[in-house]
Amino acid sequence: MDTDDTPHTHDPALQTDDGYVVRPATGDDLPGVAAVYAHYVAESTATFEEVAPGIEFWRERHASTLAQGWPFLVAVDADDVVVGYAYVGWWRPRPAYRFTVETSIYVAADVAGHGLGRRLLEPVLDSAAAAGAREAVAVISSGASPASRRLHESLGFEAVGVLTGVGVKRGEVLDTAILQKHLRAP
Fold it and tell me: Which structural domain range is residue 109 located in?
């Protein structure tokens, strides 16, 4: 956000490794994004959603993320099938939070553990910092895979708090850990 209050878009370069490509998401990728997320909605407590959002939600999320100048990346396999995604959005809607973003990252369960999370989240954080974000926040459910927390911590996030008992899904009472990373000086 440099000296003004408007974020600027900085698309990351294409990255390839192990047959996967990380690139900016397009409208054609959104059904794949929806499918990756729908798995976690239906099968886990990593997200507090109980009904998977439809494609229109993802179109709006993608458009608003890009309109705000933030990155939205996907990982695709050799057949161009979406196997993961990451983006950031405003932490809170009030103007004083305009330099703080919240991360969102999901990798398809069948390819998790191959380093895609890092290859998605690292350039998203770099792009967010280049676009003016000063702080990044991750809100991680106690029902999420421990790998999610380890990924964030390996990228410099630190635990700053826990909200206890704030969610109930599938009969399980859930906490959320709040992690924070300083992206750049004010």
Answer: 15-182
